[in-house]
Amino acid sequence: MPGWSTHDIPDQSGRVAVVTGANSGLGLVTARELARKGARVVLACRSEARGNAAVDRIRAELPEARVELGRLDLGDLASVRAFATGFPYERLDVLVDNAGVMALPYGTTADGFETQFGVNHLGHFALTGLLLPVLLAAPVARVVTVSSPMHALANIDMNDLNSERRYRRWIAYARSKTANLLFTHELARRAAAHGTALVAAAAHPGYAATNLQTAGPRAEGRRAAERFMGIGNRFFAQSAEAGALPVLYAATAPGVRPDSFTGPRIAMWRGAPAPSWRAPWTLDDTAGELLWAASEELTGVTYGALEA
């Protein structure tokens, strides 16, 4: 792992990958580098215009890239179901659950879930479950869920998953990122218990310069906060290319362990991929089971072959 870079990504020829939120930032870099190594990559994006622009951008750099757009709105379970139903391939080797929102003002998804919990966790929970048959059709599929060091700010509250009692944007974000790690933990446990070769792993980019930091302030017209975040991105963050390395490592490197959490080596902030610290509550079997059951009930999606 020391010094691991995109040059170390194994050949991905013959593999099929889906990357959510691939129109910009970490998702775009992840999709591009998987395509560079020969994978057929579906860029799963909410905006058709931005998704097509990302496809064109990759093709301009890599004329032989096999990339295509898949319309996916993780804040709308009908869109998630439509994406999965229309998935055109018989197997899926790599699913990167990357898309997310951060520190938004309170809002709800099309299905009435608090936006950060609904998009960051429930949308990806439903997507992964609906794609499970094609994941299990691959010899050794990987599901990589992108979390954040910010998960350490808060554990989930099983009595208030949708932050209806009190909404604090950063706590809600942290809880959604804890949910990402608990989902990975429980998916890895179930995959092993049922004797499948599926590897569920998690990764985070450290502090990487993407539009994630500025989207919330921009949505509220908080120009000072937007400028502050922009300054942080410019002077303190690492690039999206560097931030994507832990995700690419988790998705492609040989020997990635189930339920591992990969991030930047230096203080979980920047540097080459390395094992990352995670809060103890993200390894709690009971919490993982409870969140899984609640997620099934909320989304209506069950995992068939991996049901306990």
Automatic annotation (TrEMBL):
Source domain of life: Bacteria
Coiled-coil blocks: none
InterPro entries, alphabetized: NAD(P)-bd_dom_sf, SDR_fam
Pfam family, one: adh_short
Entry keywords, A to Z: Oxidoreductase
PANTHER family xref list: PHOSPHATIDYLINOSITOL-GLYCAN BIOSYNTHESIS CLASS F PROTEIN (PTHR43157:SF31), PHOSPHATIDYLINOSITOL-GLYCAN BIOSYNTHESIS CLASS F PROTEIN-RELATED (PTHR43157)
NCBIfam families assigned: PRK06197.1
Protein family membership: Belongs to the short-chain dehydrogenases/reductases (SDR) family.
Protein name: Oxidoreductase
Organism of derivation: Streptomyces lomondensis
Lineage: Bacteria, Bacillati, Actinomycetota, Actinomycetes, Kitasatosporales
